[in-house]
Design the sequence.
């Protein structure tokens, strides 16, 4: 039986239910207990957030120009985009802590959404693509867990 994408993400990033040690100097990853500098983690995590934000903005833009039956999709993705905006705020808090420990730290530029065409004529492909992006987004949240835990302790 093939393993799910979630299982692969869990194996690579660790279980989201388990806490990771996060300090001003580094993030302890569960897979091999290596510690990476916090500013490295934040840069990667923030960039990942920004990319997903851009993807979901693309989806919203395309949906808003499409047929009425896509309203429900628009509504769901709007909630996700709003959630990502809140997560960016959390990442900003972690970035502030990084700046305190490293004067050379800066966040990557946030990519702006574009108007590329993501819809095909096949409704099945549209649905599959959207579900694929959502699964990827959920997996990335495993990686961002340490930043959320750190933010909640303040």
Sequence:
């Amino acid at each position: 039986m093939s393993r799910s994408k979630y299982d692969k993400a869990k194996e690579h990033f660790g279980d989201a239910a388990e806490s990771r040690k996060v300090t001003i100097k580094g993030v302890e990853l569960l897979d091999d207990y290596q510690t990476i500098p916090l500013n490295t983690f934040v840069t990667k995590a923030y960039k990942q957030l920004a990319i997903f934000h851009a993807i979901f903005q693309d989806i919203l833009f395309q949906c808003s120009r499409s047929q009425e039956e896509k309203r429900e999709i628009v509504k769901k993705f709007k909630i996700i985009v709003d959630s990502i905006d809140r997560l960016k705020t959390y990442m900003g808090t972690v970035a502030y802590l990084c700046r305190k420990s490293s004067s050379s730290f800066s966040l990557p530029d946030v990519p702006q959404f574009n108007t590329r065409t993501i819809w095909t004529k096949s409704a099945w492909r549209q649905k599959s693509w959207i579900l694929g992006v959502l699964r990827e987004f959920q997996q990335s949240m495993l990686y961002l867990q340490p930043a959320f835990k750190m933010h909640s302790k303040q």
